[in-house]
Design a protein that fits this description.
The chain is 24% helix and 37% strand. With 220 residues, it is an alpha+beta fold. It folds into three domains: 1-54; 58-116 and 209-216, Thrombin, subunit H, CATH 2.40.10.340; 121-205, Rod shape-determining protein MreC, domain 2 (Thrombin, subunit H, Beta Barrel). It has a six-stranded antiparallel β-barrel with strand order 1-2-5-4-3-12. It has a six-stranded antiparallel beta barrel with strand order 6-7-8-11-10-9. It is globular, with a radius of gyration of 25 Å.
């Protein structure tokens, strides 16, 4: 009987030790995840700071603190505002290209209107042929590149020299965005319904679903 009791106590103790070990393992796993996330964040911040130092030393680095991908209107909220020098209409960029421009500004936050929003318009040129057009947001998913949204290049002459995969950059002529910012690549080309102009679907180079840090440019 004593042996059975000792065996029972041993099993109870072993069970408690297993539970304790499982809890320790969960804590360690969370620490690993947290550490990995810090490493990734540090790398992204280094990339943004490198862009700031090499291209836009007067820019303001900001983190994205809000984004609703379900909304019809495409915008993000950043953690910098008027107290940090952010003003309405300032251009916003990321490592991969143009993000949009600053909309409403608060003391320590601001809303950024993305280039994919239907209310957005950017004067652009095709890098290869120097064809100029107006890029407007569509807030429409593209099937060929999941996670990316389409914009549309409008007011192109029917004879415009435009090809699939052409690179589109800012022209600087709208005096809102600096010239030469990477915007996207041409995905489709078609005649518009009036037959006078060409329209082109453009896929932005920025994957907005993965965006976490941006630079707000002091321009002009």
């Amino acid at each position: 009987m004593a042996d059975h009791w000792k065996h029972y106590l041993y099993l109870v103790g072993a069970g408690k030790r297993n539970i304790a070990l499982e809890n320790e393992l969960k804590i360690l796993r969370q620490k690993v995840v947290t550490f990995d996330e810090l490493v990734f964040e540090n790398q992204r911040l280094n990339d943004v700071l490198s862009l700031k130092q090499n291209s836009w030393p007067d820019s303001i680095a900001a983190k994205i603190i809000g984004y609703d991908p379900r909304s019809e209107y495409k915008s993000i909220k950043i953690n910098k505002g008027s107290s940090q020098g952010v003003k309405t209409d300032m251009p916003v960029v990321a490592m991969d290209g143009l993000v949009g421009k600053v909309g409403p500004v608060f003391s320590n936050e601001a809303i950024v209107l993305l280039v994919i929003d239907p209310a957005s318009s950017v004067d652009v040129i095709v890098e290869r042929s120097r064809v100029r057009g107006l890029l407007v947001g569509m807030a429409k998913d593209t099937e060929l590149r999941p996670g990316y949204f389409l914009t549309r290049l409008e007011y192109l002459n029917r004879t415009s020299d435009l090809q699939i995969s052409d690179v589109v950059i800012t022209s600087g002529l709208d005096q809102l965005f600096p010239k030469g910012l990477l915007v996207g690549t041409v995905e489709t080309i078609s005649n518009n319904r009036f037959g006078i102009f060409l329209d082109a679907d453009v896929v932005p180079t920025v994957d907005f679903s993965k965006l976490e840090e941006v630079l707000v440019l002091k321009y002009p």
